[in-house]
Amino acid sequence: MSEPVQTSHDHLDVGPSALRALMVWVICITPVVVGLTMIGVGLTDAAKLKEFADAMSPDGNAEQFTEVRFEEMGDRLIRTGAGWLVMAMVVTVLMCRYACHLWAAMTDAVDLIKQNTARLRRLEPMDRGHWYVLMGLTVVGAAGVIRCCAQPMRVDESGTFLSYASQPWFFALTVWNEPNNHILHSFLVHLSCAVFGESEWAIRLPAMLAGILLIPVTYAAMRIQFNRSVGLLTAAMLATSTYALDFAANARGYTIIMLMFMGLLWLMPKLLSRRPKAWIAFVLLGAVGLYTVPIMVFPLAIVGLWLMISAVLKAPPEGRRLFFLKFVFGFASIGLLTLALYSPALVVSNIQTEMQEATTFAAHESRWDIVVHSLAPRFDKWWEFWAYDYPLVVSVALLLGFGVSAFLSGRMSAHGSRLFWASALGFLGVVIVMKRLPPDWSVPFLWPLFLALAGAGLMALVKLIRLTNQKRLDQIVIVLVLLMGLGQIGRLVFYGISADVPWQSGYADVIAAAEAVEQPVRDGAMIMGHGITTSPLRYYLYRRGIRHVDAILGHRKDRPDVVYVIHIHQNQFQEGRYEADAKTLVDAGYEATGEMIRLGQSDMVRFVRVADGDDVRSDDVVDGPTSLE
Questions:
Q1: What was the pLDDT predicted at 351?
Q2: Which one of 170, 209, 560, 577 is separated from 118 by 20 to 30 angstroms, measured CA to CA?
């Protein structure tokens, strides 16, 4: 009796059929539920929606959601809901054909973890040593991130909590009224605070976890792009870099972007090797990154160019035509999935206003002459941040290695040599299209890339002048990395990490300031400050039970009898601000009493009202509460 012929899909029949059916139902039903919900909300009376939003708000007044706003978004909700229903039909058709592939990709991810765990026991001694050192580096990096987490809250992360994470869950997902709302990250912060409370570490937990995971993922990415020594050296530099550790302890979405980018770099060679499941991960990583911060377009441009260069130089096993079809379909899928994820925010918020405000952070107009002349100063500023507290010899070595990586790219691995040119051309390509350079604080994703290219360049130089062989070089790298880890442990134990770094300064006194002005604010005093001080001060007053501090930083409607003006000493971002505030108060009929609250790096000067004058106006003020909790 002849045995049955095995079909091409038999090997995909993995896992219980009931679980696979459940996965299909969840994926197909989710867009239907979202679409019907949007249509239902769009047809609901605006007054009832306003009443519901107020009931969900902690202070009983959802200021962002007015009846007028609900009326304006009604038609948009219905149209967007219809779009979700159309997407549900498309997803259903695709799932009927590709459900087995998706299930196989999901189970393969679990199997991959098991296989890698078992593979550690069979590794050669050098590889096993790399993994053990990497685990130690991850622990050291985690300790550094936790140490940084003890620093006071900064302006953007305080704003994330006060404006979005502390509000009902749908605020973070729908109110996209300023670039500060990194939607996915804000939602994760909301979940973290709901479980662990409203402390600094709970707010920073999503960014911290992404920053810690970044160390092993960067190792894996740079190992597959270059070699194991470059991967280990890059991971060690990240685990001991003040810049990377501080960003990982800052409750923003940029560490998630870095993690997604490194995941894509690890995935890219697999996209060339006829693995359709890798494209599913590619789409998910790209969409998650864009949903966190739109600045993810820069990493995606780098990845796209790398794939195109690789396919042109060497035809993929499946052929160039089929590969480029997958390439186009993959990026189109990222765009459509990102659009679907952003659809609630696009319906509720004014995207045109958001984009106009976002451009103000680019620091210059969209003119080519300004862009070109801004390149050198901006790169110099980024280097000041990246190389902060590095010895001169380390800075010189990194710059030398990076320069060598451009001229000796042919001596690096095939993947690594393409990465340099893809990074340079991809980054500049997005700048050319936008006619703007990204803000200084939004480019940390370039840091691990720079470290890897610098390390690869140095190793290529060593091989060129034949100082040592590859085996000895691997041993030297392990010893160097161990010394870096031990040095970082000593630094954390005996010195810690300064809170006054160039990219974040002026926050050292904010906790003491909140304690000092708590009672005056309860009595109706106004606190006048600027930018970097107001949101953190409002956060710590919020933690002290003053929940109804005016959320709109503008000017007081009343004329308070007492105003405290924050004066931060020797801060480049605050030069002349105190003098301007004092003049504003004098013109408004106030005078300084000579009394002040002296803090470590700042003072809070007390002004009292002595006469009628102009309204008290300031770009950033902290008002006394209208009611207390």
A1: 53
A2: 209
